[in-house]
Design goal:
Elements (H helix, E strand, L loop, with lengths): L1 H27 L4 E8 L1 E17 L2 E5 L4 E6 L6 E2 L4 E5 L2 H43 L5 H40 L2 E3 L4 E6 L6 E2 L4 E7 L3 E8 L11 E6 L7 E8 L9 E7 L11 E17 L4 E3 L2 E7 L5 E12 L2 E6 L6 E4 L10 E4 L2
Parallel strand pairs: 1-21
Antiparallel strand pairs: 1-20, 2-11, 2-15, 3-10, 4-6, 4-9, 5-8, 6-7, 8-10, 11-14, 12-13, 12-15, 13-14, 15-19, 16-17, 17-18, 18-19
Helix pairs in contact: 2-3
Length: about 375
């Protein structure tokens, strides 16, 4: 009888223990419920685009360099300065060039003095010839004397022409020296902004070596490259959707202004130039992308607000059949307004948590928030 009672007690104790474990397991499997807005992925037609990348440039850029060798005496501008057309940017040491101008001026004066003497001699010879012709008509001079006077007049006239040529050459030399002196001042070719200063006072300037870069003021261009396989998609004058990093998230519409007709043999790409609308946020050197429409395709889209970033990875909380949220990694495509294309990770018709913020919703039951 004692054995039977002891067995019953052991059995009762085991059953109570099992009951406690069962209760604990039930408590552990309770899923936390959270409220959130829910959106649905959908499949629809989107434009099939050809994407091109490039850099923002001014429509015109001038690299100002010296035309003569000389030491830089002054650089009068800095990066970011606005300049007007003809404004002096830099000055070279012009002592040697001024000496050349003075030497040329002296040569002109000497030539002019010689010319005055030649003119006087030619005028005298011409008047003597006139008198001898009068005497010849009166039979008062011999033919030999007449020939000598004629030859002297011709020689004086020829000498005057030679002296005049020498004077012209001296003036041309003076003009050349003055032109060289003008090269000592480097000026802005048009109104714009200084974007680079490559020299400081004391630098030895050489012809063709850049000293200052000036970008023309006004609207900018995106200079991008289109692969040769897609060059048939683009044409001059077409409207292009452009996104510029650093100029805000809003896309802008540009106009394709120019297509360089020759491809780069190394990249097999064609350079295109897209006129951009005026914007205070645009700066030369910014990186940008341009999308050219090339038909349509079927794509899966989700709201951009449903995407969360985990480091450099794009994710979304996707609900299963029991409304349990699971974190799923995505491969994203091009944005389509407030939506974004999903290349992999989600199928059409799946439900996702919208605007999850920084909440960790993985494994939680999501109750649709009104």
């Amino acid at each position: 009888m004692k054995t039977v009672l002891l067995g019953c007690l052991v059995l009762s104790s085991a059953m109570m223990t099992a009951g406690c474990k069962s209760d604990d397991t039930a408590q552990q499997t309770v899923v936390q419920t959270m409220q959130a807005r829910v959106v649905e992925s959908r499949q629809q037609e989107v434009p099939l685009n050809v994407r091109s990348t490039g850099t923002v440039h001014a429509r015109e850029t001038a690299i100002v360099s010296a035309q003569v060798m000389g030491r830089v005496q002054q650089v009068l501008v800095h990066e970011g300065d606005s300049v007007r057309a003809g404004q002096t940017l830099a000055v070279l040491d012009d002592a040697a060039m001024r000496a050349s101008v003075e030497q040329a001026q002296a040569g002109v004066k000497a030539a002019q003095s010689v010319q005055v003497a030649a003119q006087t001699n030619a005028a005298l010879a011409a008047s003597t010839l006139g008198r001898y012709k009068q005497l010849e008509s009166e039979k008062s001079v011999s033919p030999q004397e007449m020939d000598e006077v004629s030859r002297r007049a011709e020689a004086a006239a020829a000498n005057l022409e030679a002296v005049r040529a020498q004077t012209d050459a001296a003036r041309a030399q003076e003009n050349g020296a003055r032109t060289m002196l003008g090269y000592a001042r480097l000026v802005a070719p048009f109104a714009g902004v200084v974007t680079a200063r490559m020299a400081d006072p004391g630098t030895m300037a050489e012809p063709g070596v850049p000293l200052v870069q000036v970008d023309r003021a006004g609207a900018l261009q995106l200079q991008a490259t289109v692969d040769e396989s897609a060059i048939g998609v683009v044409h001059k004058g077409m409207k292009v959707q452009v996104a510029i990093n650093g100029a805000g998230s809003t896309a802008m519409t540009g106009t394709l202004q120019e297509i360089v007709p020759t491809a780069d043999p190394s990249s097999h790409g064609f350079v295109i130039k897209i006129d951009l609308p005026a914007s205070s946020q645009l700066r030369a050197g910014m990186y940008g992308t341009a999308d050219f429409a090339n038909g349509v395709k079927q794509a899966i889209l989700i709201p951009r607000t449903a995407v969360v970033m985990r480091g450099s990875l794009a994710c979304a909380y996707v609900l299963d059949g029991k409304s349990i949220a699971q974190l799923r990694y995505l491969t994203l495509g091009a944005p389509q307004g407030d939506l974004i294309e999903v290349l992999s990770g989600i199928s059409a018709g799946e439900k996702l948590v919208d605007t999850p913020s920084d909440r960790d919703l993985a494994g939680k039951r999501i109750e649709v928030q009104p």
